[in-house]
Amino acid sequence: MIFTSRYSNPELRSGKYTAVRISLGTPKWKLGYNLDAEMPDLMPFGLLHKFDLYEDFERAYFARLDQKGVQRILSQLQRFESLGKDVVLLCYEDIRKGPDDWCHRRTFADWWQQRTGEVIPELYDPTPDHSKPRQAPSKRSLETPPTTYQMEQFALF
Fold first, then answer.
1. CA distances (Å), 12 to each of 83, 85, 123, 140, in order?
2. In 3D, which of 72, 83, 92 has the Cα closest to residue 23?
3. Model pTM?
4. Which one of 40, 73, 114, 150 is most buried, counting C-beta atoms within 10 A?
């Protein structure tokens, strides 16, 4: 199976995956797992920060992927799968934060699904999502308006 994920996903430390770099750079911090390969055909050379709108990036990246072709990319992915582990295509972004935090790895997954009908899911990430509240508001706080106290100022002298 093929997944996408971010380098910081602690699930990757389990050793159950073939980790494949598709980002332009390599992380400068200790990952806790080995990067097994890289896939330059999926790297967005010259496209990141070139466009103001995601749609323009998507169009350019899709065109580049179409140039490479499904068969060429498939043969590379199959070579990684032949190593006997699920394959994870990696880059940096934590896309759990919302639609403004898109990533080319998910753009590739969309392209792949459109061209082949196969879904490439994002690998489960057990890290707490800091963009969401740690706990829901209590039932009581939703039912009872907060109590406010009138403060009276006292003179000290």
1. 16, 12, 9, 40
2. 92
3. 0.78
4. 73
